[in-house]
Structure prediction request, 223 residues.
Amino acid sequence: MNVPYGFFPDTWHWLAALVYVAVLASVVLRLPWKQLSNSNSEKLHVYLGTCVALMVLWTMKTTVVPGLDYHYLGATLLTLMFGWPLAIAGVSIVLAATIISGSSDWQTFPINVLLMGVLPVTTSYVIYRIVDSNLPNNFFIYVFLCAFFGASAALLSVIACATVLLIMTGSYGLAQIAHEYLPFAPLMLFPEGFVTGMLITVIVALRPKWVSTFDDDRYIKGR
Prediction:
């Protein structure tokens, strides 16, 4: 959902920039700096490698109508693997890279990072916290609810928010979006959830310590 420049008034971009600065300040205060230190180089390499992989995937997108395109988001994957602060930072890095490559407008960075980063990452993290606090410690519950359902819900939140914003600004009418974009939403949600669920399952099976929200003792060994 990479919104081009010109779809929103400049006032919205400035407001989004202020909100993003506030979020970024919270991220900096909460960042697990030890995970990024030289003493934990494996975690840092995995983190940077995941960001690079998402950079590549974000360049492979399908445009339905301008401003409402689709690519694998990966926000839930980042959230489950690295937690809320590093996931926000990771999406920011990925979006900055798309701007440098010319795939996105620099003026829209605040709105796009809130829409494609802060919103889905926060949605994913809230779902994880609800599942972790209220449901049994079960591997399948973790994968299906936190990964599969969480990724689909995160993308749905982006689609819904982008649709509302574009209608509010008059960029598109409700009838046009309902006819040209929303019918394809289910085709976007399932792959996002399936790919995220599959990747989390493989990573947890082979390298569980790479997933910071997964506890091997709680979900598998303690069963």
Remarks:
- The first helix runs from residue 10 to 30.
- Residues 4 and 115 are 13 Å apart (CA to CA).
- The longest strand covers residues 62-65.
